[in-house]
């Protein structure tokens, strides 16, 4: 049974920003609803209500909808018009193809001043003699009946014969009521016979089940032939169901609906893909496997200076951090990205307690730092010497350098080789006819000479 829930109403209220308290129009057709409920509490401002193509057997829980103008209940199982006296603004009522047999129930619409249109096409009451005349005479404010306008002359004639028509209508109603009681009794007996037949064949189905179990335990059986037999049997049952002649009643409509629902469910199960096996994260011997369901890029580097692994995962930039889960174990790291698993096996054990995970606010990448469990032994670095020790070492280095003694030039006993050429150059004889160049003598300045800095020098 499908009920009118708040989620269903909000889903159908997308045009009103999912607000149901101010909703004026809603369509709940073809939802397999079997009862009208909760709308008079949640949607007090409803003006148009579509409930066609459901399985509603009774009009109820609409009396508080004071603003309701149009109610569509076509293709349902309504047998009586009732509970509409308080719908003060009701203008149009559609009950096409229902099972209304009690025509006198339209008197509940008599005091609705704004009521103008009524549709009863396809109901048993339309086959009554004097049906249209009785409706026109009972509802003086009505302007359209089954889509046809009511003429003034037709109304006057109907008002004149209303007394006689009502007796005919009541008599036909009683015959219809007895007919419906017989139909219900036949349906009840038919259901009892079906139950007895099922109970009588239970032993046979059990034997078949035992035979199937024995076949499963022994030789393998052919599945294809069994599936074909099942399909043939279901096709025969389907054909038998549709070929069976049954009266057009609310019960037959419900049975057709249930049959269609089973066929639809069967097709869905048939076309449904096989269930996906869960992803294996570990091998049979317990080793972790490399898994990348999200198909994201990543880089794993080893930092020798810090003795750790660096895992850079290219997470989606705009993904919320709450959708990311990171788990570091001694021999593997696992990251869940919106339900998609990423697992990477490590070559060395890491310290899970000291591991950290950071996410970039610019690129969205996730950086996981995992220190190794085994420390690396490195040579000790030379200690830095103090300034006083540096000075002492410099002094020691200066002492190790060779020091030269300074000797007076007059104390040389050997020949000065560097000045031999210079002395010879001073004693060189010029060639014949060569005149020696004398330096020009500068004339002394006169006593009246004044050195004026403003006067430029002579060239």
Q: Sketch the topology as an H/E string, one letter per element.
A: HEHEEEEHEEHHHHHEEEEEEEEHH
Helix content: 25-40%
Determine Rg (CA atoms, Å): 55 Å
Approximate strand percentage? 5-15%
Globally, the shape reads: elongated
Largest sheet: 7 strands, mixed
Output the number of helix runs.
10
Overall strand count? 15
Strand order of the largest sheet: 1-2-3-4-5-6-7
Low-confidence stretches: 203-223
Structural class label: alpha/beta
Instruction: Give the averaged pLDDT, no decimals.
Output: 83
General description of the model:
The structure is a single chain. α3 (131-138) packs across α4 (152-160). The model is unreliable at 203-223 (pLDDT under 50). It is built from ten helices and 15 strands. It starts with 5 loop residues before the first helix and ends in a 33-residue tail after the last helix. The protein has 459 residues and is an alpha/beta fold. The chain is elongated. β1 (25-27), α2 and β2 (48-50) form a beta-alpha-beta unit. The protein is 32% helix and 13% strand. The chain has a seven-stranded mixed beta sheet with strand order 1-2-3-4-5-6-7, covered by helices on one side. The protein has a four-stranded antiparallel beta sheet with strand order 8-13-12-11, with no helix packed on it.
